[in-house]
Design goal:
β5 and β6 form a beta hairpin. This protein has 4 helices and 13 strands. The protein folds into 2 domains: about 100 residues, Ribosomal Protein L25, Chain P (Beta Barrel), CATH 2.40.240.10; about 80 residues, RNA Polymerase Alpha Subunit, Chain A, domain 2. The termini are far apart. It has about 220 residues and is α+β, with helices and mostly antiparallel strands. A 6-stranded mixed β-barrel has the order 1-3-2-6-5-4.
Length: about 220
């Protein structure tokens, strides 16, 4: 995985709500860098450039070489970081409100979630079964530079009642599975059985009203 270079600008440690909203209106995203026993650093990211970073194949697992435009004040002209958390607008998902970036070392392994790409159409689905995907990503542990964009697994041979579990995944060299090896990823369920209609005795159904009517007549005669 190649690193992506991104520019950032330092900001005040405490901005007012009005200032933060003004940054967002100008398509600047408030963010912080933290970790590795260094001070937390408040910054601003260019919204357009950051969204382009997210659109790479690595997605949120991208490794970023962050260049600070005025980082020389603290002797920190650049930082190597990864995305820890993204806060999005509830109504407009494309609008990013805040980003947490964590400092990393390229020589230390990290645990990350990687998407699983299921390949093919299960044979069981062609026989009427129902495909059930239980996990769309799995947790792995590896060096930041070895994080796979996705993990592919072939499911075309799955029949009805069969499944694949986490240990069935073929992981690249240097990538370790962090999930329970027996965790079910995908299965093919049997088709739902339609309930047969309950047979109704037409003669009994027709006699019932007559019986009720007869009881009513007896009641009138006794009265």
């Amino acid at each position: 995985m190649e690193n992506v270079t991104l520019k950032a600008k330092k900001r005040l440690s405490k901005n007012t709500r009005g200032e933060l909203n003004r940054f967002r209106q100008e398509d600047m995203i408030p963010a912080v860098i933290y970790g590795r026993e260094k001070e937390t650093l408040p910054i601003l990211l260019d919204g357009k450039e950051f969204r382009q970073v997210l659109s790479t194949e690595a997605g949120s697992n991208v490794v970023i070489d962050l260049n600070l435009t005025n980082g020389q004040e603290n002797g920190q002209a650049s930082e190597t970081v990864m995305i820890k958390e993204i806060q999005r607008d509830i109504l407009v998902q494309e609008r990013l409100l805040h980003v947490d970036l964590i400092r990393i070392s390229l020589t230390e392994k990290r645990s990350v979630n990687v998407p699983v790409d299921y390949l093919g159409e299960p044979a069981g689905v062609n026989e009427g079964g129902v495909l059930q995907i239980l996990k769309r990503e799995v947790e792995v542990n590896c060096l930041p530079t070895a994080i796979p964009d996705q993990i592919e697994i072939e499911i075309s041979e799955l029949g009805i009642g069969e499944n694949l579990i986490a240990k069935d995944l073929s992981l690249p060299e240097g990538v370790e599975l962090q999930e329970d090896p027996e965790e079910t990823l995908v299965s093919v369920l049997a088709p739902a059985q339609e309930e047969e209609p309950v047979a109704v005795d037409e003669e009994t159904e027709e006699e019932a009203p007559e019986g009720e009517e007869a009881e009513g007549q007896e009641g009138e005669e006794e009265a």
